[in-house]
Specification:
By secondary structure, the chain is of the alpha/beta class. It is built from 19 helices and ten strands. The model has no long low-confidence stretch (mean pLDDT 94).
């Protein structure tokens, strides 16, 4: 019997089921498999009833249902489960077949797996998939990377099921070799952390500083979603603030301890490895960590004193200042994210198209927004743009937002309202635009206690010097130098 399956998908949690249904809607025959086979039967009898979706109870049965080259997509928990399924799949596959990891895997694992799978004569794709449950069902943003030879065989499927923007362009394109797709998805998630924290700080300033009700904040976010801040996260914040539980705002009943799955932490760790200061994303990650100290915070609130949070300034004017701070900080978040992408492209020899990445994020994903159109335009005009802040549009937006942004950070500090993301974004902006930073003193300190050497203003770059600061040292210097 001739195989009918265009692609197989392993993992029938919500994302997996929704992606399968999405593929079926677009005319592709999908073979569904899950390690707990009862889930396969439940899915086929339930949501997949009346479709062309094929259920399989074993990996051998699943592979036998697939057309060549066989395409098998994993949507399982990141880490060891991915490695285990790869090893189980390889004996059932032939040269030229394709294994796809659609989970949130660490890009370094994807680099390793691509090399391993290719050594066995197969192709490997690590792809980011963003958009949550609804995106998976109706059209996610898809960021594939890995074995370039595999792309023509999955392109029709991925681009068909992905989100589309106004001009019909799919929010999916080939990113680059080995771990590039998962790296781009990781940076996406890091920016997502930053965006969410910025919105939460705006909410906190309005609630705790201005004493606004959820209904009043709902109206503000509704207005913001009609302007430059139009985005999925602003939209859902608007809706959350209007949601009632037994007549009361549900958001105010939710415990203020935030969870995280690790991709924000990976972004910060990756930035440290590459020497890129994604300070806003780091602040967002640490803000979630601080929130987890709920019991300690409750006790500390009764013992540690600070100013009362009430902000007595003219309310409408300060709300506009908050909007400016949110918009300018958002620019910094994306600027840092694309700095990280540039550094990774250089380190791993990836030919990343930053305009295409912005296009992939314009629809389907969690950070989708009107804002991304301008990023796409910036990189289309200047593909080698070193930093988004230097683009004429974004430079102008920061200039117009700067007064309100600085006012918000200053007032928050005076009133004791924590705004770590707003503050770190402003500090980064001021550091990046500074011709001189106090790192000269830092280098002197390093040379004093560790003979780490320094460069001089009056000598060519790349020449290093050491001073015997105490008169008791010698001429031996440290063997390494890290700028």
């Amino acid at each position: 019997m001739e195989p009918k399956g265009d692609i197989a998908l392993i993992g029938l949690a919500v994302m997996g089921r929704n992606l399968i249904l999405n593929m079926n809607d677009h005319g592709f025959t999908v073979v569904a498999y899950n390690r707990t086979v009862s889930r396969v039967d439940d899915f086929i009898r339930g949501e997949a009833a009346g479709t062309n979706i094929i259920g399989a109870h074993t990996l051998a049965e699943m592979v036998a249902q697939l057309k060549r080259p066989r395409r098998v997509m994993l949507l399982v928990k990141a880490g060891q489960p991915v490695d285990e399924f790869i090893d189980k799949l390889i004996p059932h596959l032939e040269a030229g077949d394709i294994i796809i990891d659609g989970g949130n895997s660490l890009y370094q694992d994807t680099i390793r797996r691509a090399k391993y799978v290719e050594s066995r004569g197969l192709f490997y794709i690590g792809t980011g998939v963003s958009g949550g449950e609804e995106g998976a069902r109706r059209g996610p943003s898809i960021m594939p990377g890995g074995s370039a030879e595999a792309w023509p065989h999955v392109q029709p499927i991925f681009q068909a099921i992905s989100a589309k923007v106004e001009d019909g362009a799919p929010c999916c394109d080939w990113v680059g070799d080995n771990g590039a797709g998962h790296f781009v998805k990781m940076v996406h998630n890091g920016i997502e952390y930053g965006d969410m924290q910025l919105i939460c700080e705006a909410y906190s300033l309005m609630k705790n500083g201005l004493g606004m009700t959820t209904d009043e904040m709902h109206e503000v976010f509704s207005q913001w979603n009609e302007g430059d801040l139009d985005s999925y996260l602003i939209e859902i914040t608007r809706d959350i603030l209007a949601f009632r539980d037994n007549g009361e705002p549900l958001v105010e009943k939710i415990l203020d301890t935030a969870g995280q799955k690790g991709t924000g932490k990976w972004t910060v760790m990756g930035s440290l490895d590459l020497g890129v200061p994604v300070t806003l994303i780091a602040s967002a990650v640490y803000a979630r960590c601080v929130s987890s100290f709920k019991t300690e915070r409750v006790k500390a609130s009764k013992k540690l004193r600070g100013p009362k949070p009430a902000i007595t300034r003219q309310r409408d004017k300060f709300i506009e200042d908050i909007r400016c701070a949110l918009y300018a900080s958002k620019i910094i978040s994306y600027a840092q994210g694309f700095m990280l992408l540039r550094a990774a492209a250089k380190e791993y020899d990836w030919r990343l198209s930053y305009g295409n990445i912005a296009l992939m994020w314009r629809g389907g994903c969690i950070i989708r927004s009107r804002f991304l159109d301008k990023i796409k335009e910036a990189y289309e005009k200047h593909p080698r743009l070193p930093n988004l802040m230097l683009d004429i549009f974004f430079k102008g937006q920061i200039r117009r937002s700067q007064k309100g942004w600085r006012n918000v950070v200053a007032v928050a500090a005076k009133r004791g309202i924590p705004v770590p993301a707003f503050s770190s974004a402003l500090s980064f902006y001021d550091s990046y635009r500074a011709e001189h930073l106090p790192a000269n003193l830092l280098q002197a300190q390093r040379d004093y206690f560790g003979a780490h050497t320094y460069e001089r203003k009056d000598q060519p770059r790349g020449e290093f010097f050491h001073t015997d600061w105490t008169g008791r040292g010698g001429n031996v210097t440290s063997s390494t130098y890290n700028a």
